[in-house]
Model the fold of this input.
Amino acid sequence: MEGIYLPEPTTEIWEQSAKGFREKWQFPNCIGAIDGRHVTIKCPNRTGSNYFCYLNKFSIVLMAIVDPYYKFICVDIGGFGKNSDGGIFEASNMGQRFEANLINVTNHTPLPGQNEPCPHVLIGDEAFALKPYLMRPFPYRQSKLCPRKENYNVRLCRARRVVENAFGILSQKWRIFLKPITTKVETTILIIKTACVQHNFLRVTQCDNPSNVLSKEVNQTNHENVFTAMLNDSRRATNIAFNVREKFVAYCNP
Done:
């Protein structure tokens, strides 16, 4: 069931997600919204403060990339509650694959009204670092002093809420998330992953949306070898990230 309703993301799945974000949330070239959710657990034995989070509880983190129809595309489960969302993502398998450009994302395409190619990106909150493949809002003070940045923040945050809504749907459907889970960490991870798969099953079978196309085929073709080489230089990668964000700012301020 996992291979059908939470499969390895393919180019087709990313393209369906990008189409949905463009049509439903008016944020083109977006392949997913990313965020982490703290799942409350009973403190494991002899783990110190690893699982103690800023919410004053013990937790493990469900890191998820969600499509525009509230369906999970990728999940990473089991991060220590004490760690930040950005740090958990960068250390995760899916974060490392994004960094190496091994996630089958479609080719770069220009944003509407622009001529230069723009990469397809994830969107997240301030907890994540700005990357060429991950857009985040401008800091609050900057956005309030610049209407162009504020317009970009509003558009991005509106589209990014789908991941928070997906977590809310998950919690309300499976009430086990509303109280501490008392099983071993390994078992808790399996419980969370099973809930994510069942969540996708219900989204696919009960909701009429174009994201219902699920492919079992994995395309390992790397479409952006030059882009990957540039990522190896962190300074150049940072400059690329700023340039990519400016393209989205220009799109949000026609």
